[in-house]
Every structure is written in C-alpha cells, then in structure tokens.
Amino acid sequence: MPVWLLAFGSVLLIGLISLAGVFTLSLGKARLERALFLLVAFAVGAMLGGALLHLLPEAYERLGSGPRTGALALAGVMGFFVLEKFLHWHHQHGAPEAIEGASGHGHGHSHGHRHALDGDAAAGAPFATLNLVGSVAHNFIDGAIVAAAYLVSVPTGLVTTLAVVLHEIPQEIGNFGVLVYAGYTPRKALLYNFLTSLSGLAGAVLAFFVGEQLPAFSDALLPLTAGAFLYIAGSDLIPELNRRHSYPASKSVGQLLMMGLGVAVMALGLMLEH
C-alpha cells in the first residue's frame, strides 16, 4: 500500500474522532468524567512512551548523537508552549464546563455562558470561536506530524498515529463540550468539530510536499514531535490528572495502571517493529 495512502487514511481516522462527542450525550457527568480521566491517563503513557521509547531514539539514530536532536526536541516543547499561550488550548482539557456540555447536562446561567440548545452561541461566541480556531491549527499540525512520520517509516507513522489518536479522544470530547456549553446545538457542535478536523488533511499535504523537496524535514520533525508529545503530556494532561486532590487511592492507582498500559502499548509497537 502506498505510504501516502496510509498517511491520509490515518489523518482521516484522526479526523473522525471529532465525532466522538455524540457518544457522550447518553452518559452522566460522573460517568463521563471517570471515563475521560482514564483516557487521559492512557494518553499520557502513550505520548511519553512514543516520545521517549520511539521518536527520540529514532531521531538520534538519524540525526546523530550531537546536541542537534536535543535542541529540536526543546524547540518542540517551546513551540507548543507558545502556540498554547496564543490559542488558549489549555481550557479544552477536562474543564468541568466541557464535561457538562459533552454529557448534555446544563450548567445553569450563573456563569453567563450557557444558552438554550436550540440556538447558536451568543455571549459564548468569543470563546467558542477561539476554540474552533485553535482546533483548526491543532489538527493542521497533527496532520503534518503524522504525514512526516510516515515519510520516515511506516512503523513510525503508526506509532505516531496511535499517540495522536489517544490524545485526540478526550481532546475532541472536550471540544464538543465547549461548543455545546457555548450554546451550539449538539448537531452543529459535531459538524463544526468535524469541519475543523479536516485541516489535518491540509497539514498532511503540506508535509508530503515539503518532505519530498527537503528529505531532512521528516528527520527533523521526529524530535520536534517528541518535544510536542512531552509538552502535551507534562503540561496539559498530567495536571488534569492531578487537578483534584481528594481522589481516593484506588482512582490514583487506576490512573497509574492506565499510564503504564499506554507505555506498554508503545513498547509493544517498538518490539513488533524490530
């Protein structure tokens, strides 16, 4: 199968995750929150495992053992810090308002954001628009990352796709919840969420075009992607797992087990590659 077909198929699969919000409407807030935190823990393990067990070792093998690889990984961390500051992505991860919106439970009118579900956002439009703009940029970058990983090798592309997929599930549920919380109907929230996910295909096209013109682009994107995964896991996802300090020990153990399972999945992928 042509590598470009695998890459675009993977990006399209990631885009379809934008429709995951529809499955949350039948869940209560408590059940949805429990499921999200387990998914977040699993995504943390997968992203850390993908970055430290696969992407960085592959990058050092291709770029050498000098400081260049580490500098590019740092650039990935710093770059995503700047992007997140600019686009305020952090409000999407597990926010109580997003969970309530995704589960179809209203938050009342006390915060001045929630509106009737039979109309578009009014006062909530500014943060909803910001959410959509951030989603376009986010999915564009994800598409470029996945396509560039496939240009390195099919196993690298598959590992990167898996890490992105696991991160995108809670991310897209959060996006859906934010839009519903802002006043969009669930149908329109799903539609807009899906349309923003299509920017990933544009990112993949750009990555293939640049990768063909500059073969070193794919190699350089390996440590950049590793830095991005480390930043997302450490700055966005792990703080969400620690957001509440009243968790019983059993819930913390469950999160740790899910993180370990995420790492194990990435380790298994590495063993199968070799």
Characterization of the model:
The two termini are 20 Å apart. The chain is globular. The longest helix has 35 residues, at 29-63. The protein has helices at 3-16, 29-63, 67-87, 96-102, 125-152, 154-182, 186-197, 199-213, 216-241, 249-273. It has one domain. α5 runs parallel beside α7 (186-197). It has 274 residues and is an all-alpha fold.
Describe the structure in brief:
This protein is mostly helical and 274 residues long.
Layout of helices and strands:
Blueprint lengths: L2 H14 L12 H35 L3 H21 L8 H7 L22 H28 L1 H29 L3 H12 L1 H15 L2 H26 L7 H25 L1
Helix pairs in contact: 1-5, 1-6, 1-8, 2-6, 2-9, 2-10, 3-9, 4-6, 5-6, 5-7, 5-8, 5-9, 6-7
Please tell me how large the radius of gyration is.
19 Å
Mean pLDDT: 77
Number of strands: 0
Q: Could you say which structural class the secondary elements and strand pairing correspond to?
A: mainly alpha
Search tags:
77% helix, globular, 10 helices, mainly alpha, 274 residues
